[in-house]
Amino acid sequence: MSSLNIPYSFTNGTVADATQVNANFNAVKSFVEGSVVQTDGSTVNAVGSITNAMLAGSIAASKLASYPKIVVPHTFTLSGTVLVPVGQTDFICPFFVKVPSTQTVKLISARHRINSGTSATVKLQNNGSDITGFTGISVTTTAADTDPADVTLANNDLISLVVTAVSGTPQNMSFTLFFEYTWVG
Question: Which CATH architecture has domain 70-183?
Answer without folding.
Answer: Sandwich (2.60)
